[in-house]
Amino acid sequence: MLRSLQGRLAAALVAGLAVLSLAAAAASFYVLRHEVDRMSDSALQETAQRLLPLAIMDIVGRDADGDDDGSRRIAAVRPHDELLTYAVRDDRGSLLLRSHDADMAIFPPDLKAGFTSTASHRIYAEPGLQGTISLMIAEPLATRRHAVIEAALAVARILILFLPVGLCGIWLIVRTGLRPIRRFCGSIAARGQNDLTPLEKKELPTEVAPIADAVNDLMARLDRALAAERSFTANSAHELRTPIAAALAQTQRLMAEMPSAAMRERVQNVERALHTLSRVSERLMQLAKAENGRVLGDAPQDLRPVLELIVEDFRRVASAKPIQLDLPDQPVPSWIDPDAFAIVVRNLVENAFKHGAPGKPVGIVLSVTGTLSVRNHGPVLPDDELERLTKPFERGATTAKGSGLGLAIVEAIVRGAGSVLTLRSPVPGWQDGLQVTIEGLPLASARPMREKTGPA
Hints:
By secondary structure, this protein is of the alpha+beta class. Helices cover 52% and strands 15% of the residues. The strands form three sheets. A six-stranded mixed β-sheet has the order 1-3-2-6-5-4. A five-stranded mixed β-sheet has the order 8-10-11-13-12. Helix 5 (261-291) runs parallel beside helix 9. It is a multi-pass membrane protein.
């Protein structure tokens, strides 16, 4: 069953053209047969009226010469097959004259003036000399049928030649007529994932314009809902920073004033909880920024210095955890925003440190083709767990502290940049570990489409 509108229209028009062609052929055959009969009857009548005076003269002259051969046959000038045969009878039915190929069996004895049809011939009788003689002329019906068939075949050949041209014309007409719809679909497909601006519909057919209106209305509602959600997430995380910082300061001051070790330990637990809340609020702000889609910069930047700076920071803070950095000799200019790229790398390295095997190095590899991979040793994760790790607040089977937002933030930024995030466990070529790969970072060689977003 055809699902394509273009295919359905083309098939319907082709079927209609075929039906019309058959109807035209049938009508042409009917008209041709009628016209052939009319023209042949007219030719029979005209021939009979021209032959009758000649026949009368021949009969009168023969009577004057005393020729008693009443069934005189007209000799042929040269041998040939007669299409029309004729005979002349008197009012008593006696044969007076006939053409050389005339078969008297085809002429009924009681033939009346005018046209008569038998099983094999069309006959016309023309009386003369006040009805004392009658000239009968006959034409085989097979001749007429042959003429009709030849004319019908000529029309059929024209129709057969016309059909391919008609089919191509229908296909072009349908394709041209649906071009605005294809452009409309192409403009939707070419949009960024966060581009919710109204669709252009000025070239759309009247029948399709309501679809564009409905899609625009849906995108407007979706844009408002997403903007409200992002605004709530960002504002909530931002508003939490100040009271959390104040609570931390008061907790640290309170811990210094505690008289006993037991009370100081309880205050330290509160401090750790506030630090965790602070990290969660920071991650929520990062997630809001990532989901807002503003991850492309105004100009391409080399990603190598960003990676080197982040690795140096980690080496300075966590000197006991080695990092193996593999960078290409050539620059890797990309349209991704350096801050967004730094958030991606920091989250991936923090996850590798937090969940990787202690004392084992974390590997970071950047290629000139725009592929970044971060790998670490550790337990092998099942496939169903890998699928869940990129969702917000989802964590694997681990005892390490965390919010479950790191990979969700990475996935949102990567998706906004038009790249692909892949998780593999174990690491290819290893017996254990996890490898996170980002493929298709937008390089400077291909200008990415800037994404339009609503208010966040």
